[in-house]
Amino acid sequence: MFNPIRIEAHNPSPMTGQGNNTYLLLGSNGEATLIDAGVGEPRHLADLEHHLADARAQLGQVLVTHAHADHASGAPALAVAQPRARFLKFPWPDEDQRYPVRWESLRDEELVLAAGEPLIVLHTPGHSPDHIALWHEASRTVFTGDLVTAGSSVMIEASKGGDLRRYLAALERILTLEPVRLLPAHGPEVSKPTALLRHYLDHRRAREQQVMAALAAGRDTVQAVAEYIYDGLEPALMPAARENVRAHLDKLKAEGTAFERHGRWTP
Q1: Percentage of the chain surpassing pLDDT 70?
Q2: How confident is the model at residue 237 (pLDDT cuts 50, 70, 90)?
Q3: 150 falls in which pLDDT band (50, 70, 90)?
Q4: Where among 162, 191, 220 does a domain terminate?
Q5: Mean pLDDT of the chain
Q6: What is the model's pTM?
Q7: Are residues 222 and 109 part of one domain?
Q8: Which of 174, 91, 99, 161 is nearest to 128 (CA)?
Q9: pLDDT digits 0-9 by tens, 49-105
Q10: Maximum distance among all Cα pairs of the chain, rounded to whole angstroms
Q11: Long-range CB contacts (< 8 A, 24+ apart) of 149-153?
Q12: Are residues 148 and 245 in the same domain?
């Protein structure tokens, strides 16, 4: 039975919700793998140490889904607490250098042994250029990082390499696997992956129509479109809303459906 242990990163915030999930895999040989590094919060490090001690295991590697701070910034603290651990991720050099550990590179479709279990690396960019998911084929489980979050949507940070077209393709890639379980970096386990993935695709299509309606109504800046669509949104979430709007506009521009001149947008 494939039973990863969820360990909370203890970093709740308006952007992370209740905080990040990290996942610990324990092998029969005393080796362990952690998926995502958290933020170095002492309770996360203590919880990890507790599970390792109970299993008489040592942390051999940390697989990081992408370089956003809530997933990767805990790497230096982990390196101190778990000096035998290796740190692996798909490269994003400009961001990776923010976290001073020795990063080893992962490749798309590479097979990685995690505590004795084979995981296939799937490059799933869009949320970020370096984003990966990890596919455990035997149990049809995907560690999805920030691809999906049950009950919420995912920010496409257009100003820092986010790309909505690539994100939609990543969702489609996971959908074709026909998984039976998703283990996301935020929120609960997803036991009906097909329904959620299709909902995410439908949500983006509906949002695109809202963006086009805003342009047709004369809202011609990112800020104006965001205010038109997200009227009443909590102020702390408006920067993420603007990023999503820009991601949609960039997609429409690439497809020849919207046009931009000096920061002004038209359909």
Answers
A1: 100
A2: confident
A3: confident
A4: 191
A5: 96
A6: 0.95
A7: no
A8: 161
A9: 999 999 999 999 999 999 999 999 999 999 999 999 999 999 999 999 999 999 999
A10: 63
A11: 149/17, 149/184, 149/185, 149/186, 149/187, 150/184, 150/187, 150/188, 150/190, 150/196, 151/187, 152/17, 152/186, 152/187, 153/200, 153/203, 153/244
A12: no
Phi/psi of residue 229, nearest 5 degrees: -85, -40
One DSSP character per residue, 114-163 reads ETTEEEEEEE--SSSTT-EEEEETTTTEEEEETS--TTS-----GGGT--
Both tokens assigned to 25 = 């895999």
User: Domain range holding 148?
Assistant: 5-191
* Residue 200: inside a domain: no
Can you give the pLDDT at residue 181? 97
Print the SS3 string covering 221-251. CHHHHHHHHCCCCCHHHHHHHHHHHHHHHHH
Predicted confidence (pLDDT) at residue 126 exceeds the cutoff of 80? yes
Question: Across the chain, how many H-helices and E-strands are there?
Answer: 8, 13
* 185-202 pLDDT tens trace: 999 999 999 999 999 999
Which one-letter amino acid corresponds to residue 29? Answer: N
Domain membership of residue 180 (yes or no) is yes
User: What is the total residue count of the chain?
Assistant: 267
State the pairing for strand pair 117-123/259-261: unpaired
Residues 76 and 154 in one domain: yes
As a whole number of angstroms, the distance between CA 197 and CA 39 comes to 27
